[in-house]
């Protein structure tokens, strides 16, 4: 029977690897496709070649989890068909178009598990396109994978648990961190006390990071409103408002972000139904507690359908793998399913707490000036969106894209969609859910032209 | 002047490459982005305003780190591994 089951897993982070492991354990051989050269995803990203740093140096308190995940993946390597450095750029007729270098191929599948993860949610402000400004996730990649700090004097800015984690990792690695500028007020952090019951170790770790940063002389500020990043050719300083007063610090790099956003393009191409997630302030694919989407045989695990973090990704990867096996008529261990779903529900409750401790700066859209670049690919300004609303009566995101090119550039809205939704919604006086979401278009990332032609011919 | 600062991996073998006609070196395990930004502070000029850019997300999503190869190809610097003898050019002319 298992010959007829040929699952495709997209993404080899914590969710994809755990899903693959479950399938392999029951004798099923999945295809696992991942853009990175080695497994682990962004959170447990591996170096390209070994260096002097230990797992503890790289992954801190999560070293054991990272090592276990990497070892699991190495252990199942000969029982999966693994395509690293490969991009799934289209889905159609139960097959994926995948490109490795300049070679494309179609991969048919019986079932699909999407474990596509997330990227930083960013909001534009003056100076955000300057060299030396990176996302928080990008700052972390530079350190973990490349052993580099993003600058000599670094400021971290924004909101979300990653803000403190990355700053702390930088300090531990010997980088000079000038300040951590949190857009949430200090009072929001008191919400974390509610989280002590659900995930005490996570909460204590967060407080420890903040305390250690302060002890090492890093300025930690709350209730910050970012005003601009100074510089002409590169970052020279950051300016913000705090309790009515303007402040400036010299620095040569800024890492920033406001939590994460799901990578949902493939789910869209697979035909999955989307729902609006109030917590993430974004449309995301609908899934049940097991990872099943509205499309039979299509599952989503990890952050690709709502942000829940790495631990949840491992659990939901395993759960989605088991759901696939159940749906294929195989018998699975039901007690384990109960455990997984209970743990996932517990993490989800904790995410509510985190969201209130690191709230999205909802006032951002009204405060941002017309001349700030909104779409960094096509260089469209915030004011162009407002003008489209005012002059052309636009109130929907894809219409906005057609008229202004916001979201039409090479990143396909990954870096600007969250902000475009906020500006559009504020300008036409609607709620963010009412302005829609960008429709995914193949290829979901740029591919060489000859590859696309070959794919069409196939 | 460099944008990125190396904190580790100082002992890895040198990998020699060419950047805008000049011989440079990175370290084994570098991405093209790391190799360039540890000696320079930009990767390209933006397509319309011609302002300098130096990548952003470092995970293959933002598409802001494209550089040119000697054969006219375009590569995404953050997700391309540095190889010995690579002949790279940063984009110094805006598109329009």
UniProtKB/TrEMBL annotation, chain B:
Keywords: Oxidoreductase. This is (2Fe-2S)-binding protein.
């Amino acid at each position: 029977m298992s010959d007829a089951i040929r699952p495709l897993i997209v993404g080899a982070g914590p969710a994809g690897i755990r899903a693959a492991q479950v399938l392999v354990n029951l004798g099923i051989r999945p295809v696992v496709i991942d853009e990175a050269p080695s497994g682990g995803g962004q959170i447990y990203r591996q170096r390209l070649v070994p260096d002097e740093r230990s797992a503890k140096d790289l992954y801190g308190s999560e070293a054991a989890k990272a090592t276990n995940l990497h070892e699991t993946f190495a252990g199942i390597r000969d029982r999966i068909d693994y395509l690293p450095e490969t991009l799934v750029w289209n889905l159609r007729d139960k097959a994926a178009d995948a490109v490795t270098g300049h070679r494309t191929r179609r991969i048919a599948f019986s079932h699909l598990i999407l474990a596509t993860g997330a990227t930083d949610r960013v909001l534009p402000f003056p100076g955000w396109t300057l060299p030396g400004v990176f996302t928080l996730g990008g700052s972390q990649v530079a350190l973990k994978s490349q052993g580099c700090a993003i600058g000599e004097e670094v400021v971290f800015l924004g909101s979300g648990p990653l803000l403190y984690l990355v700053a702390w990792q930088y300090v531990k690695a010997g980088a000079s961190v000038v300040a951590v500028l949190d857009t949430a007020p200090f009072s929001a952090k008191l919400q974390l006390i509610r989280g002590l019951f659900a995930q005490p170790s996570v909460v204590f770790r967060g407080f420890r990071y903040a305390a250690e940063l302060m002890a090492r002389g890093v300025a930690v500020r709350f209730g910050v409103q970012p005003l601009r990043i100074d510089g002409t050719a590169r970052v020279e300083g950051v300016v913000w408002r705090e309790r009515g007063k303007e402040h400036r610090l010299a620095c040569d790099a800024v890492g920033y972000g406001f939590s994460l956003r799901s990578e949902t393009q493939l789910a869209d191409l697979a035909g999955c139904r989307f729902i609006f997630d109030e917590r993430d302030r974004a449309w995301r694919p609908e899934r049940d507690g097991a990872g099943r989407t509205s499309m039979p045989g299509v599952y989503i695990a990890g952050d690709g359908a709502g942000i829940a973090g790495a631990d949840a990704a491992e659990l939901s990867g395993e759960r989605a793998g088991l759901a696939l096996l159940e749906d294929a008529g195989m018998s699975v261990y039901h007690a384990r399913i109960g455990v997984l779903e209970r743990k996932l529900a517990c993490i989800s409750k904790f995410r509510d707490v985190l969201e209130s401790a690191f709230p999205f700066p909802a006032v951002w859209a009204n405060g941002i000036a017309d001349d700030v670049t909104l779409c960094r690919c096509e260089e469209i300004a915030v004011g162009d969106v407002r003008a489209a609303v005012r002059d052309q009566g636009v109130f929907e995101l894809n219409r906005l894209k057609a008229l202004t090119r916001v979201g039409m550039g090479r990143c396909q809205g990954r870096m600007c969609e969250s902000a475009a939704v906020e500006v559009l919604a504020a300008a036409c006086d609607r709620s963010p859910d009412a302005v829609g979401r960008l429709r995914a278009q193949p290829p979901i990332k740029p591919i060489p032209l000859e590859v696309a032609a070959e794919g069409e011919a196939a | 002047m460099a944008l990125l600062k190396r904190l580790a991996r100082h002992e890895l073998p040198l990998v020699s490459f060419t950047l805008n006609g000049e011989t440079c070196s990175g370290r084994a395990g570098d991405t093209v982005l790391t190799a360039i930004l540890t000696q320079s502070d930009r990767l390209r000029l933006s397509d319309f305003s011609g302002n300098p850019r130096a990548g952003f997300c470092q995970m293959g999503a933002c598409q802001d780190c494209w550089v040119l190869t000697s054969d006219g190809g375009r590569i995404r610097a953050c997700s391309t591994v540095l190889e010995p003898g690579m002949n790279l050019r940063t984009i110094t002319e805006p598109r329009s």
